[in-house]
Design goal:
8 strands; globular; NUDIX_hydrolase-like_dom_sf; DNA repair; 8-stranded mixed beta sheet; 37% strand; 3 helices; 8-oxo-dGTP diphosphatase; alpha+beta; single chain; 8-oxo-dGDP phosphatase activity; DNA replication
Length: 134
């Protein structure tokens, strides 16, 4: 038994914009948009994992901020959490995603309302809209 695992997502904010990443896989999520991130490795904090994942996946260095209020139980043994972040260095490029997109509050609302976000990230939309002034 491996125990409980954490997956961390980054709510990467730039003034009134949020960075979304388009999934390549698995097939049931391919084409949908998400907050970028990945699994927390043994001995790693969620903040350290997010820094590592966004460096590997997007080529950026980030500053990590406060967590979003809700966590999401993906399975009995896997929980998704989200941390606010801002880019300190670099321009994001999609190494493991199909595409990246900056969205403002109306854009995030449209992505949500049209079902284009991965289902697990929908819980954060109201809080993120507040962060974006929408």
């Amino acid at each position: 038994m491996t125990g409980h695992r954490i997956v961390v997502a980054g709510a990467v904010l730039d003034r009134d914009r949020l960075l979304l990443a388009q999934r390549r896989y698995p097939p049931d999520l391919a084409g949908l948009w998400e907050l970028p991130g990945g699994k927390v490795e043994a001995g790693e904090s969620p903040a350290d994992a997010l820094r590592r994942e966004l460096r590997e996946e997007l080529g950026v260095t980030i500053a990590v901020g406060a967590a979003l209020r809700e966590s999401v139980a993906l399975t009995r043994d896997l929980t998704l959490v989200a941390l606010r972040a801002r880019i300190e260095c670099g321009t994001p490029h999609p190494a493991e995603h199909e595409a990246l997109r900056w969205v403002d509050a109306p854009g995030l609302r449209l992505m949500h309302d049209s079902g284009r976000l991965v289902p697990a990230d929908n819980v954060w939309v109201p809080e993120l809209l507040g962060d974006l002034g929408g």
